[in-house]
Each structure stands twice: as structure tokens, then as C-alpha cells.
Amino acid sequence: MSNGSVKDILKDKKKVRFVAESAFKQVDKDGSGYLERPELEEVMNNVAADLGVEPPTSEEIDEVLKELDENGDGKLSIDEFQVLIEQVLEMMAKVEG
To answer: Are the CB atoms for 85 and 13 separated by under 8 Å?
Structure first.
């Protein structure tokens, strides 16, 4: 991404939603419309690899799921997942400078 592009995305809620929906569709392997724990684990492992950090532990994945799963159904809707995407974009923006 070019310099400042992640920050530009973060300023535009429609762009954030587009990024979230695109990522969600790629990871929602079973097409259920929700991300179950194994799918969340895949996302988190991919993000860790992209950021060059250690992959998350099982406990960290459980913690993120619990934190984002607002209705307590044990899976993430697109709206719940978008919160994670916004957090990842914010981390990327910090790395970008």
C-alpha cells in the first residue's frame, strides 16, 4: 500500500466496510455468514504473518472471540468482525508511520 493509504481507508467508513466484507467473504469458508472459531484463527494467523509477529495462542484467539462476540453466540457476524478489521488497520497505520 502506498504511504498514507491505510489512514485514508480508516477515515472512510464505507472503505472500512468494503475491506471488512472482502476479508469476511474470503475467510467464511462454509458460507454461513458468520466466522466460527477456526475461521477466526485463520484470520488471526494470517494477520500475524503479514505483520511479522508471532501467531496468536489458542487462549488469545479465545479472548479475541469473546471480546468481539457482542451477542455471545460463539461466532462473529460481519459487524462484529469489522471491529477486528478496524483494529488491524489502525495497527497497520501505526506501522506505516
So the answer is: no
**Host H or E run for residue 44:** helix 37-51
CA distance 93 to 88: 9
Q: How far apart are the first and last CA of the chain?
A: 12
Residues 6+ apart with CB under 8 A from 36: 30, 74, 75
Round to whole Å and give the CA distance between 10 and 64.
21
- What are the phi and psi torsion angles at 35 (to 5°)? -100, 115
The predicted-structure confidence for 17-47, as pLDDT tens digits, reads as follows: 999 999 999 999 999 999 999 999 998 998 8
How deeply is 95 buried, as exposed, middle or buried, from its count of CB atoms within 10 A (0-12, 13-18, 19+)? exposed
**CB-based contacts of 80, cutoff 8 Å, min separation 6:** 68, 69, 70
Predicted confidence (pLDDT) at residue 59 exceeds the cutoff of 50: yes
